[in-house]
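Protocol step 4 of 5: obtain the predicted structure for the target chain.
Materials: sequence only (see below). No template structures provided, no constraints applied. The aim of this step is simply to have a reference model before the mutagenesis design in step 5. Sequence pasted as it appears in the construct record:
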Amino acid sequence: MEIINITKLKKKYKIDFSDGKYIYLSENTVLKYNIIKKGLLSETVLREAQVFEGKEQAFTKALNYLSYGMKSEYEIKEYLIKKEFSLGQIDYAIPKLKEFNYIRDDEYAKSYSRDYFLLKKKGPSYIRKNLEKKKVPSEYIDVAIKEICTNEKMIDVVYGIIEKEYNKKNEPKTKKIQKITNKLYTNGYSFDIINSVFKIYLENHEDTGSDNRIISKYYQKAYNKFSKKYDDNYTLKNKIIEKLIRDGFSYGDIKDYLEEIDF
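Step 4 output (structure tokens):
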């Protein structure tokens, strides 16, 4: 093959041949195979250069993917597979990325844990599950969670979530606790930490423990519904009590309220 022209473009070099064909090569490929001047180029060197170029393209593609944020080794492999790079090209790109510290699953685990715990308020179980999906080694996950999700920090985060959610829910105490507990558990916190922080919160906000300030609203709704169906007070009272219990009020609070309104 005879090279008749070499043109430097923005990211590549265009190599024109005498038979009218042309190829594009990266600077790394051009320098590695000394394709820097016009003249004859053997078929063997051309093939080797094109093979190497494919590997360099995989590396460059991975770099571009990483420009949007840190990724695990598994995520980068899956991305390159989707982009239809061969296993040989991927096996070239991954070690090179590691060599330049573009792939660091240990640091990725810490960064991911930090973002999801401090910014998105997710707990250890949620973080671990998602890092496992990304095939991050378990030893890196353990170190990251231990370093980021300390018990002291978890208490602060969970307390803040409880305080925010508890105050905006105009519902019975038991129902609020159940809903918030389920939300926190789904977000990766253990029942032990949830229950212990709830205990602290309720001790600091003893007035939030009473349902008297909201039970009247639920009572009125139940009364309006059942008073149209039942004439005798005994049946009506029992139906209202059953409904208020289903709504999440304790029998003691219901009994106290009904005595208070003399029903």
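Step 4 remarks: The mean pLDDT is 90. The two ends are 102 Å apart (CA to CA).
Proceed to step 5.
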